[in-house]
Design brief:
Radius of gyration: 19 Å
Strand content: under 5%
Distance between the termini: 51 Å
Order of helices and strands: HHHHHHHHHH
Number of strands: 0
Number of helices: 10
Shape: globular
């Protein structure tokens, strides 16, 4: 590759720093993946598969957790379920021939759902990068390392990819962002204060609790930066 080619490629990458360019790229990807009934069905089917895997992962230990706390305990599975609910709300528009980036209805309940799904998917998509690497040696030495390390990290990063599609058609409000942040704090308290954290090969300490809280705050900040406001920023 010549120096001029590298320079042109660098200039194209720098364009992604512009909000308008990022919005166009996100809209194009969302239209490609969600814009037709067939492509949307594929994404929905894969989301359902990830939900089934998540439910299977948490099912053996769910009996040790009070039922009322299951949504906070099985956080990854709940994140995928919320993402699936966001996709389900898009189905009528796409089936009716509408534009997924322009014609999806907006409302306050949908804004709360889209914001919470985004934050939860990003938070628990990134979380395994920290939690598993804090005990990297134990996970890669485990008999099922391909599943418990590479499989978990790979599938959870797809959570982030799914979440990043939502701002192409979704909205948020200050109230939705505040609710997502409050729920993230409650989740950290339940997981590491009460002790109902997801199954791990080690006993987590304050380091993972602090990292989880930081990821939650960062996820809310990303949602605030990524989503347009509903009704011009009304709460």
């Amino acid at each position: 590759m010549s120096r001029s080619d590298r320079f042109r490629r660098l200039r194209r990458l720098r364009r992604l720093r512009r909000p308008a360019v990022r919005r166009r790229v996100r809209a194009a990807i969302a239209e490609e993946l969600l814009g037709t009934p067939r492509s949307l069905a594929v994404v929905c089917a894969f989301t359902a598969f990830m939900l089934a895997v998540g439910a299977w992962y948490y099912a053996p230990t769910a009996g040790e957790v009070p039922v009322a706390l299951w949504p906070l305990y099985a956080d990854s599975a709940v994140a995928v379920a919320l993402g699936g609910a966001v996709l389900a709300a898009v189905v009528p528009t796409v089936r009716g021939g509408g534009d997924v980036t322009a014609d999806v209805p907006t409302s306050r309940p949908l804004a709360y759902l889209q914001t919470l799904a985004f934050v939860w998917l990003v938070q628990f998509g990134v979380w395994p990068l920290v939690s598993l690497n804090l005990a990297f040696g134990e996970y890669v030495a485990a008999p099922d390392a391909w599943l418990y390390y590479w499989g978990v990290i790979g599938t959870h990063l797809l959570f982030v990819g799914l979440a990043l599609l939502f701002p192409a058609f979704g909205r948020t409000t200050p109230g939705a962002l505040g609710a997502a942040l409050a729920l993230g704090v409650v989740n950290v308290v339940v997981d590491y204060g009460v002790g109902y954290h997801p199954p791990l090969l080690y006993e987590p300490g304050t380091g993972l609790a602090a990292a989880t809280l930081a990821i939650a705050v960062g996820s809310v900040g990303l949602a605030s930066h990524s989503f347009p406001r509903l009704g011009g920023g009304s709460n």
